[in-house]
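Step 1: inspect the first sequence and its C-alpha cells.
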Amino acid sequence: MTTSGRARAAAAAPFLLAGFPVVSAVARALRTDWLPMGDNAYFTIRAGDVFGPHHPLVGAWSSGSTVVGVDVNNLGPLQLDLLAGPVRLLGAGPGTVVGVGLVNLVAVLAVVAAGRARGGPLGAWVAALAVTALAWAMGSELLIEPRTHHALVLPFAAVLAGVWCLGAGDRRALPWTVLGASLLVQTHLSYVVPVVVLSLASAAAVVVLWRSSDAPERRAVHRTLVLSLVLLVVVWAQPLVDQLVGDQNLSAVLEAGQAEQASMGVVDGARAVATVMGPPSAWLRPAFLEFDPAGGLVGAPAAGATLTVVAVAVAAIARRARRLGQGGLQAAAVTVGVALLAGWAGAARTPIGGTFGAVSGNFRFLWPVAVATWALGLAAAVAVLPSARRRWASLGLATATTAVALASIPLSYQSPAPAEDSPLRPTARALLDGLDALEGRGPFLVDRSGLFFGEPYSYVLLLGLQERGVGFSLVASTDLSRFGDGRRPDGGEEGTLRLRTGAGAGEPPAGTELVLLVRPLTKPEARELSALDVRRAAGGLRPGAEDRYEALR
C-alpha cells in the first residue's frame, strides 16, 4: 500500500469502526427477517402513509395526552418522511431496518466528522470511541428500532456535535444541526426543552461568528444562514399546514404545555442527571435497560456532589483550553456545560403524572450528554500529551474503539420491549400470511376494543392490511390521532374485523365469520426459535436445524 493509501485508510478507520455497530445490527436484522411489532409497526404504517391519501402532517400520538386529558401529537412527521423511501422500496421489515439504520449511521458519522474537523486525527478517535460506546450501551436491537425513545439517541449526539462545531466557529455545521434539531423536536416532545436550550446557545455562537468575521466571511455566513432558514421552512412546512388548515396540533401542544401537570422538578431532575452522569457504569450496560426515574435515582446529596464535581471539571477544562489557545477543546467544554444545563432543564420539566407516570424513555437525551461529558475528559487528557506520545494515544484509542465495536456484534436487548417482541414474531408472521385471504377486499372497520393494553399484534394486522392495499378505518379517538382523522368510518366499510386474543379467540360469536386463527408458539418453542435465531445470525444452521427453524417461523 502506498503512503497516500495508508493515510486514507487511517483517516477512514474511525468512521468505519464507529459505524460498524449500526451496520452489523442492520445486517443481522435483514438476515433474520426482522419484523416490526407493536409501536415499531405503527411507525412503519405511518411511513407507508407518506405521500398517500393518509399522509401525516404531524408526528405520533403523544402519551403525554393522558396527563393533560387532551389528545395531542408530537410536532412533526420528519422521522416518518425519512423512513418513507426505504419502506416503500424495500417493504415493511427491511425498509424500517434500513431507514432507521441510515439515520443512525449518518448521525454516527457526523459525530466522528465533527471530532476530526475540530480535533484532528486524535479528535476523530475520541469521537469514534464515544459514539461507539453509546451505541454499545444501547444494544444492537435498539439501533434498528423506529420507536422514538431509542431512535433519537444517536441523532441527539450528532446535534451536540453540531453545536460544538458552531461554538468553534464552523458555520458549515449550521444546516445539518438545524435538520437534526428539527428531527428531535418534531419526533418526541421530551427533546423540546433540551433542544431549545441548545438552540439559544447556538444562536449566540452564530452572532459571535458574524460579529468576528470580515466582510467575505460574513457573506459566507449570510449564505449559510439563508440556506439554514430555507431548510427550516421546508422541514416545518407540514406542521404549519396542519396548524393553518388541519387539526391545529401546534396550538394543542402549546395549550397542553401550559396546563397544570406534575413534573420531575429541579431536585429530582438533578438526581436523574446525576444518576446517568456518574461513574461510567451509570450510562454503560445495563444502565440503559435498568434506569428507573420513579425509584432508582441517586439521593439528592450524592447528586449535588456529582454535579458539582462535573461542573468544576468542565469549567477547569474550559479555562485551561482557553489559556493554551485550544479553541476546539474550549468550545467542547462550553458545549458540554450547556448540554448539562439543557439535560437538567429537560429532566426537570419531564411529566410524571397521568397513566404512565415517570417513564424511562422520556430521559434518553441524558445518555448522549453523559457520553459527551466523559469524552470531554478524555479529550482533555489527550490534549496535554506531548507530541511524541500522541501516536501511542491514537493507537490506544483505536484499539479501544475496535474492542467496543466488536462487543456490539452479539444480539442485545437493552430495553424490555424488543426482548418481549422477539418470541412473538412467528405468531405475527403467521398472522400476516393469513391476511392474504383478505387481499382485494375491504375496506374494513377494525375493532381493537377487546384487546389488552400494549398487545403486540393489532398494529401488525394493520400493517398487513396496508401492504395488501386493503383500506381500514378506526373509531377510538386515540386511534384517529395516531392514524389520521381520514380513517374515520364513512359507512362504506365491507365489514368489521374484530381482534380477539386468548382461549376464546377461536370461538366467534354467532353471526360472525372466523377469518383467521393463529396459534402462538409454546414457551419452549419460543425459546428454541430464539436460540436458532442467534445461531443462524452467527453463521448458519445445519440442514436439519434450518428445516426446524423454518417450521417454527
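Step 2: inspect the second sequence and its C-alpha cells, then contrast the two.
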Amino acid sequence: MIATPDGYYVVVANASSDTLSVIDTRTEKVVETISTKPAEQLLFGSTPNALAISPNGCRLYASYGTNNSVAVIDFQPPQSKLLGCVPTGWYPAGLVLDTTRGGLYVANVKGTGSRNQSWEGKRALKGKAIFGFNSHDAQGTLSLLNLPATEELAESTQVVLNNNRLTESISALAPPRSDAVPKPVPERHGEPSIFKHVVYIIKENRTYDQVFGDMKKGEGDPQLCIFGSEVTPNHHKIVNEFVLLDNFYCSGVLSADGHQWTNEAYVTDYLEKAFAGFPRSYPYPGGDAMAYAPSGFIWDNVLAHKKTLRVYGEFVSATIRWKDPQREGKPSFIDCYRDFVDATGLIDIRATANIKTLEDYLCPTAVGFPGTVSDVYRAAQFINELKQFEESGGFPNFSIMLLPNDHTAGTRPDMPTPESAVADNDLALGRIVEAISHSKFWPETCIFVVQDDPQNGFDHIDGHRTVAMVISPYTRRKVVDSTNYNQTSMVRTMELILGLPPMNQFDSSATSMASCFTDQQDLTPYEAVPNQIPLDRLNPQLSQ
C-alpha cells in the first residue's frame, strides 16, 4: 500500500487480481480499480506487488513480480491510465523513488536466479571437491533505473511484452479448428489428441546430474551423480527406451513453491515473499489458501471441462496406524514395509484431502508423505485400481500422483538409507510404467514424470535443472531432446492433450513438449527391472 503525498488516496496493489485499488481516504471507498496487465489480452499473472509515487502525486509506479517489470501509471483518479512498462530483473518486489537523482531503485527478489558462486571451492561429494549449482544459491539484485520519459515507454513496453512471450500467450488463446486431426499434442487447446488419459507423477527434490549425470548421451556431469544406474535402473532404462530430457528445469526451488508450480503453473506473491522464514506456513501439501492462485489448480481445470479425475497422494494428509487399537506406538517404516510385502493387513493407511475439491476423487489408501510408507506400496494402490478400471472401465482422463521417497529421510535412524529410499522410488516408478504399458489403456495414455523441485542436489548447468520424463506409445524412442522446457511446459502439454484452456500467463506462454512425440505408434510395453539396492536397508542409530 502507498498513500499519495496529499493523503487523499491510498493505493493497494492486489497481487492476486492484477489490479490496483484506489481508496479515497475522505469517503473510505474504492473510487478506481486500475488494471495492471501490460496487454489486456493477457490472462491472469502480472502480480503487482509494490508501489512508489512521485512527490506531486501524478506518477505511480508498480512492480510486476511475474512480468519482471515496473509499470508507469498516469495517476488521475478516477481516470488513471497505464502508460507503459520498464524491464527489471527477476521478480521485482520492492520500489524506492529517488527524485534527487531522478532514479527508481528496484529490489529483484530472484535477481539472476540461483547463480551465487560464493561456495565455489567449498563443496565436496564423497570427499572430492566438485563444482555444482544448487537451487538455494539465490542471488537477488538491485536495478537502478532512470525515471523513464513518456516517449520512451512504447519501446520499453514492447521489450517487456517480448520478454514475457506475448505472441505465445495470445496464440495459446486461438480457438480450435474444426478440421484438426488427432495428434499426440494438439497445436491449439480444444483440438483432438490421440491420448485420452494422462498420468502425472510428481517426485521429490532431485537435480538432473544427481540421477542422470552418468548418462553419456546427455549433458551430464558424472562427478555429481550420486543416484546413478545402480540405484535407479528403471529411471535409466525408461529414458534410454523413450526420450532423455537434458534441458528441463523446475520453476521453483523447494517444496513450498514446487508443488504450486506443478499444480498451478504459478506461485502467488504471498509465497514468493515468504522465503525469509515461512512465518505463516510451509504450504507444499495444500494447507494454506494464501498459496492458491486465483487461476486455480490443474484439477480445477480438469473438472471444469468435464474430464474425470483421480488423485493418488498429492495434497493429502496421511493417517498411519495399527488396526488393533490396543497396540501401542506408531508403525515404523519397517513395520509398514513388512506389512505390505507380507500382506499381513495389520496397518491401516488412509488419505484425507487437504483441499475440499479433491475429497471425492481420492484413492483412499494412497498417501503422499511421510516416507514411513514405501513407494512400492503407493505404486500398488495405483496398480490395483488400474486393474479394476480394466475390468469395469472408467480409467480417469487425468490421474495425479505423488511418489515422494526419492526425497529420502537423510540419515534419520530407522528410516531407509538414501540409496534405499531412491531405489524404492525407482522400482515404484518402473512398476507403474510397466502396468500401464501392459494395460488396454496403453495406446491412449501418456505418462508425465517430474520432480517438484531440485533443492537436494547439485547440477553443473543450473540448480533448477531436474529429472523429467515423457512416456507413451507416441514418445520419440531412444533420442535426446535438449529443448528448453520447464514445469509450465509440462502443464501446458497436459492441457493441450486433455483439451483444456491455459490457466494463466505462464502456461499460456510456455513451450509445449510436442517435440517429444512422433505420429508413429510404438506399442512396445515397458518391462520393469528389479532393484539392485535392498529397499529395507535402514540407517543405524546415532552413536552416543
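Step 3: confirm your contrast with the notes below.
DSSP finds twelve helices and 24 strands in the chain. The longest helix spans residues 418-437.
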